Structures are given as structure tokens and as C-alpha cells.
From TrEMBL:
This is Glycosyl Hydrolase Family 88. One of its GO terms (biological process) is polysaccharide catabolic process. Belongs to the glycosyl hydrolase 88 family. Keywords: Hydrolase, Signal. It comes from Pedobacter nyackensis. It comes from the Bacteria.
Amino acid sequence: MKKLLFTVCFLATTSLASAQQANWKRVQMKELIDEQFEFATQQYKVLAKNVPAQVMPKTYYAKSNKVETSDTKWWCSGFYPGSLLYIYEYTRDTATLREAEKRLAILEKEKHYTGNHDLGFMMYCSFGNAYRITKDPKYRPTIDTAAASLTTRYRPNAKVIQSWNATKKWRGPVIIDNLMNLELLAWVSDNGGNPKYKEIAINHADTSLKNHFRPDYSSYHVVDYDMNNGGVVKRGTQQGASDASAWSRGQGWALYGYTMMYRFTKDERYLEQANHIAGFILNHPNMPADMVPYWDFDAPGIPNTYRDASAASVIASALLELGQYTSKKNTKVYVAAAEKMIRSLASDAYLAKPGQNGGFLLMHSTGALPLRSEIDVPLTYADYYYLEALMRYKNWYL
């Protein structure tokens, strides 16, 4: 009897200690998230001053102390207003909202853009968030028109949305990033828009599921199609270390994309694929201890090569959503990994000092190393998905 009582008391004490530890961790994360959004509010006011009114921020180069900007047709043009909107959602800082509205006004015309597949990044990360947060109906026509524009790139014979126009190198390129733009189509269909848009999104996701992945669930960056019959011409890369390598941000796009498509369809194939991709990422022997990936999981020179904070931001945000749908065991693993990534990104190793970094939040992202573009610099989408990950952690796990 005494032994039984001792065992019960021991288990109760252990359970209490575990609960207290978990509660303390939640308190710590809440404080961290509060601090990050307070920092972001002030930092993005610095960034706003560095960016002329008719363009968008792109990156910052410390050597020249200059913020590089882009026109609104650049694929990243929606991330700056999207980040501002996440900051406003958390803080209700009205100056931040006013800045977001100014940038939305110059971006709005791109709802007609059909030059590539990036309408989801451009218009849903911006206007989609604006509509969700403010509930202002004036944003809805822009979202609907952008979705219609995106569908002009759908190739029914191949059942894919063509990413870029044909070049000497690519006949009908589709990149793994394209999964991210399906959210625009699926959301519009589910919210009173044309149901064919979601059918297109599903067709594209299914075709990519069949053709874009290796047996270990890593993703190619580019699959080149014959758009007349859907045949695969070749598989390769534009931004990875090699055609056979696992470009880190590309793995993040894949994870995020199939998690998001499961949200819209509840198709178990997408959930299964997302879990497999998560396994590939989290169990990769070249994943660093701080969980901020090298720019490519197979990059030459590891560990003496560049990191990609943007990949960590995308992966963390995706893992937090995937944790909402999967088993309790997987959820525990995914949330712990995402938390580790967030804590690393919030550390001095990756987070800018106040007023520095041109006004961007995160340092040490890699855009396209083989193209010698945006190497070891801040990037707008790194900040965007970092803020999204913070918001998701706060909303779902605190």
C-alpha cells in the first residue's frame, strides 16, 4: 500500500512539475512574441523612411548602407504590406496600418498582372491579409481579380500553372514555389468565387505531387513540362546547389504548400505528403543545431557556407500549421522544432539591432546563390513568414 501511495505521489509530483515547466515555457514564448512585435513596430518605421513612396523594399546591403527596392511587379511586392498588416494585427498601431494602406494603394494595379505565377505572393499576402484583418469589402474585388489573372497561366493539357514563360533553358517551367500561389485560388473559390479556381489549384497540387518529388520526399526546384501533353521534359534547379540537391527554401515551400492544400481540401494525400516532407527536413543530417538551414541541404562547403533565415521562417510557419492537423506525437515534434527556429531567429545571431539592417528584422537570408543574387542579406519574405510564425504560435499554442 505504501509503495502504491509513493508511486501515485511520485507520478502526481512529476505531472505537476511537467505542467509547471510547460506553463513557464508558454510564458517565455509570450514574452518573446510580445518583444518581437514591439521591435517590429519600431523597426518597420525605420524601413518605411528608407523606401520611396512608389516602390517596395527588397533587401539591404550593409556595405553600401542602402535599401534596394523594386517596382510592384516584382514577385516580393506583397510581403512588405503583408508584414505591416501582421504587425498591425498584433499591436493595433495605427501608423503601421496607414503605411500598409499606402503600399496597398500602389500595389493594387497588379491584380491584372499575368507575367508569371506569383500573384498569390503579391496579392494574397497583402490584400488577403488586409481583407481578413480589417473586414473591409473594398479589398475583395482586388483579390478576386488577381485570382482570375493567375488562372490565365493554367495549362489544362498538363494540369499545371506555368511559372515562367518559356526560355532557351526551360520550355514549360513549373517551380515548387508555385504551390504557395494556390492559396489565392482556393480561398476565392471557398468564399463565393469561381469554383473552377479551386479545381485548378487541386490539379496543380496533384501534378506536382506526382512529378516534383524524389523517393526521400525532397523536392526538385524546377520541373520542365511539355505543355501540349503534360510530359516531363526534365527536372532541375535555378536556385539550388545542383539539379539533384535539396534547395532549402524550396523544401519549405513544399511543406507549406501541401499543409495549406490540406487545410482547403482535407485530402489525406496532402497531409501525408506534408508529414513526409517535414520528416525529410527535420531529420536531415545537415540541419544545423540552431535549426536555421544552410541555403541548400546539399550545399558544398557545409558547415562553412551561407544560412537561409527565410527558409527557417517559412518552415517554422508551416510546421505550426501542420501541427494543427497531425497526430499528437507529430504535433509535439513540429511545435518544438518551430519554437527552436523562432528562438534562433529572435537571437542576436539573426535578429537585427534596433535601427540597423536598413529597417528589416532578420539578417542572413540567401535569395539565389547560384545567380549571385541576394546572398547573406535581409529579405522581405523572411520577415513576413517570421511574423506569421510568431502570430501562429501565439494564436494556436499559447
